[in-house]
Each structure stands twice: as structure tokens, then as C-alpha cells.
Specification:
mainly alpha; about 10% strand; DNA-binding; homodimer
Chain lengths: ~150, ~150
DNA sequence: TGACATTCGTTCGCTACCTATCAATTATCG
DNA sequence: CGATAATTGATAGGTAGCGAACGAATGTCA
């Protein structure tokens, strides 16, 4: 047993949580390394991806889809606007909302970006589909348990 | 299927990678909320935890145990030193190394901190042990696959 | 021994999360 | 209608992570 096993707790349950973190961090590291030549962060890529796929989107809606707090997305959008990849325009109906869309430069960059499918394939491609389903179910249940723990407070 | 599919939450919510992130974030949120009254971050807690359990530790070793880069741990240690919870002293044999230990205030705070095992219990307590084992195995394999992807570059 | 390489901790600059708060806007309800 | 509540986006301040680069200390090897 390694020291990190003891760190995360003596039982197997804790190990799942620790591996969830490691897996997330490792995935992000690969994504960041792939996008570094393009001066793009992983979450910035998700924003471009969504806008390229779904077209102009109200900022709040995008935040809900990417599961980011308003403040988090606000900062990322500011960065992308500064890079002239995303435009933030007023929406006619609700003056509070901002409509996000790709600029021409954003469109152009999106065309040049490599396909990131290989990341997911490398990570999970060799796994038994049934095991993947089980892992997803365990993680989903844990997430919901934890979130309901926060609500209760 | 890429990470992007998972983020959109379209219908493929069986995506393990996305749930790994959600699970990690949710766990950290509960931990942060629990530790907020004590003005402690989650990783700061891990540092105190290890020092309370294992006694004085060379900084680099602690970094390896907690799987943190030197730069990351350096910042966290600085914060804990500023709060007078951790002391950073010179080690006799190697003048490069710093020996970390709990200060009296650090010991005192540690005694007052609540038990955090309820978090893992709430998250994974209701799951089938076999499923937990499967989830851990899937995540571990994915992590190793991703890390070897980084080495190759 | 001396030259070179490695290691440790720090610092810098960055991404990406969060909470709390604020101004502006819109929604709701008496 | 008007007062109050809720929502949007921005900002401030904090935590957590990374890579790159640097000085000091240590290891290695010709």
C-alpha cells in the first residue's frame, strides 16, 4: 500500500474519490498540453466548442451547460473577448443578458484546432463497456450524494 | 466520444470523464464548506493531516505523497506558515531541503477540526463494494493511460 | 579536483474554480 | 402602479493547480 492510499483514507471508498481527482487532472493535463500551441485553456476550448456547435448562446445558458458559475464563465469570456475569439453582444429581449458568438477569428481558429477525440479514446478506449457504465453510475451517485449534502447545510 | 460530448450533457451522460470531474468538484466543495469556519482550504487540510499523522516531513517528500508539484506545495506551505500553523526549518543533512512540522497552534487547530470521514461515507457508503472496486480500476487505468500519453510527447 | 548535471524550494505568470457582493435589469405581487 | 424579489454579468478576493526559470546546494564523473 502506498502512502497516497493512506492519505486518502484507509478504505477503498476513498480510493475512488482520489482516482476521480487523478483522472480529471490527468485528462486536463493532456488537453492543456495539446492546446498549448494554440494558447488556449481547456475550458476556453469548451466555450469555443459549444459556440461552434450551437451558435450564438446567452452567457448564462452556456454557463449552465458547462456547469460553471457565472463568475467563472465571466472571466473566461473576458479572456476570449480580449483574444478576439468571442464577441459579447447585447440581447434584444433582456438587457441583462449577453449573447456570445464566435468572431471570424474564432471561427478560423476553430477550424485549425486538432481533434481531441484521441484523449477520451486513449483514456477509456480499452475498458470494458460494462465497467465504464458501472464507474459512471458510481461517480454519478457519489456526486449526487455530495451535492445533496451541500444543500442540507 | 470526446470530453466535449460529456460536457454538453446531451444524452451521453455515461461519460466517465465528466463524472470524474463532477465527483471531484463536489467532494472538494463539501470539504471546503466544512473547513470554511476554520479558514482552511482542502489541500491545506491534507498538509496538516499528514504532519499530524507522520510528524515532521521534508517538503519534497510531502509533495510526492500528496501528488503536488513543488511550486504548488510551496505556495500552500507559505500560506500555512503565514497562519503560524506550520513551521519550515532547515534540515541538517541537506541544506536544500526544508523540514515541515506543525507549530503548537497547528497542533491545537488540528485537535479542533471535525472528522471528515463523513464525506467519503456520504459519497460512497451506499455503493456496492464490487462496483467501487470496478470504478477505481477504470479510473486508475484511464489515469495511467493519460499520463503515458503525456510522457510520449 | 573541477566541470557539469541534478535537485530543492521559490517566484512568476497563467488557467480555472469558488463565494460574496454590486449595479442594472426584469419579474412578481399586493 | 409601485415596492420588493429574483436574475444577469462583473468584480474582488481566495484556493488550487500547472510549467518555466532561477539561485543555492548537492551529486556525478572524467
Amino acid at each position: 500500500m502506498t502512502e497516497s492510499d493512506t492519505m486518502t483514507g484507509a478504505d477503498e471508498d476513498a480510493a475512488v474519490g482520489a482516482w476521480a481527482k487523478r483522472c480529471y487532472m490527468a485528462g486536463r493535463a493532456v488537453m492543456d498540453a495539446t492546446l498549448r500551441p494554440f494558447d488556449l485553456g481547456s475550458t476556453q476550448w469548451y466555450v469555443l466548442w459549444h459556440l461552434a456547435q450551437s451558435g450564438p448562446t446567452v452567457q448564462r445558458d452556456l454557463g449552465r451547460k458547462l456547469e460553471l458559475e457565472r463568475a467563472t464563465l465571466s472571466g473566461i469570456v473576458t479572456t476570449l473577448v480580449r483574444k478576439d475569439l468571442v464577441a459579447q453582444s447585447a440581447d434584444g429581449t433582456d438587457q441583462r443578458q449577453r449573447l456570445l458568438s464566435l468572431t471570424p477569428a474564432g471561427h478560423a481558429l476553430w477550424q485549425e484546432l486538432p481533434d481531441l477525440t484521441f484523449i477520451h479514446d486513449a483514456a477509456f478506449g480499452g475498458a470494458d463497456p460494462a465497467d465504464l457504465e458501472t464507474a459512471a453510475r458510481v461517480l454519478r451517485a457519489a456526486t449526487e450524494n455530495l451535492q445533496s449534502l451541500l444543500k442540507k447545510d
